[in-house]
Predict the structure of FMN-binding glutamate synthase family protein.
Amino acid sequence: MTFFWVALGTSSAVTLLAGMVLVFTRPLIQRLWRKAIRIIETDPYSMNLWEMVSLARRIHPQIIVENGMRAESGVLVKRPLGSPKPMPHFQGLMFLPSQMADLPTKEKIQVDTRTVIGPCAKRPLELDIPLMITGMAYGLAVSERLKIALAKGASMAGTATNSGEGPFLPEERHYADKMVIQYSRAKWAKDPEILKQADMIEIHIGQGSSGPAPSQVPSIHLKGRAMQLMGLSPGDTAEIHSRMPGVTRKHDWRKLVDKLRRLTDGVPIGMKMIPGRIEEDLEIAIYAGVDFITLDGAQAATKGTPPILQDDFGLPTVIGLCRAVEFLEKKKKKDEVSIIVSGGLSTPGDFLKALALGADAVALGSIVLFAASHLQGSQKALPWEPPTEVVWYDADLSEQLDVEKAAKYVKQLLQSSVEEMKLATIALGKTRLQDVDKQDLVAMDQVSADIAQVPLM
């Protein structure tokens, strides 16, 4: 009983104090507010803070900040996690539900979620779901703990993970049920004994956030195991060339694809590129005999590249996908060459629309990265550091990532997304995710209608 009266007294005291603060500070706040408004309304522009508001309406605050970084350092600015620039995307499309003219699928029917990449390969890549983990480079971008978590999460969800441009990490291969190994423009991860462990080979020609631009990373940022696996010595620089070494003509691409196919005993061999001169690039890829194409659109993210490469290069993902599908259909290659699409897709609706437009699978990056750091980045890094400090290789907090929790969250993100896609497929009257097509789509604006070649609502 004593405790009750003490608590009541404390509560009353706090309420009284809050009231007194409000009574005495309200006039002060009001005077300061009036003074501030008077200054803004009367000072000439040359002395007025409102100048910044006017400037921000012409030049986005992000540009102002990035120009400040350029002025401060005099070197390349490297922005993380992709372009903020608005671009045409899948949001301009909507699904047409089946109700009476076409009936929805009966709820007891199981929706088939499987997909096959490289159906004409000797050893196609068969996945339980059409969502994959995109390439994230160990050492150059993310930590060993994150790579292991991605491998475990992908395996539990029935899909594949991707090595990325970094060195081959044996632990990632150990925990990955299905592993895509990137054959990059760098010198590492090309040993035959490494490549033979791949379930699929992705020749890295370019990507949405950096195109085919070269990249150099001083070994000071790669200290430790990553530097050793790359075969670098202290003082060396990890270098990714703008061109694939040894390739100058389209015949060289064919030799490379044939070589990798023989070496790996027939796993799918494909190419990753940013959509640019799509038809011309795909002509060469078909000549080279690829089993799949990964299109990484202009909305794609990375650990850090100069804003000019993110904002001003390549085509948006949805445009690249639609043009690639149209080209392969004209060449009668759509049933032979699989399409994986990536770059800015972030919701189950985006994923299913990509499948409807002709993709065979969707490769996910940023949203998986943040799923892996769920309740870890926010709790361990914020408010003083960004949440990604628990996943980057050279970050102080990277050792604090709980691998098992991260793997669980990755698996659950993929599972939850597929469940939404299955439900949407039922509402469209279909029984397979791969059966959803352009006939199920309508556009909300003329640009989206022209891109996807679907009716305008």
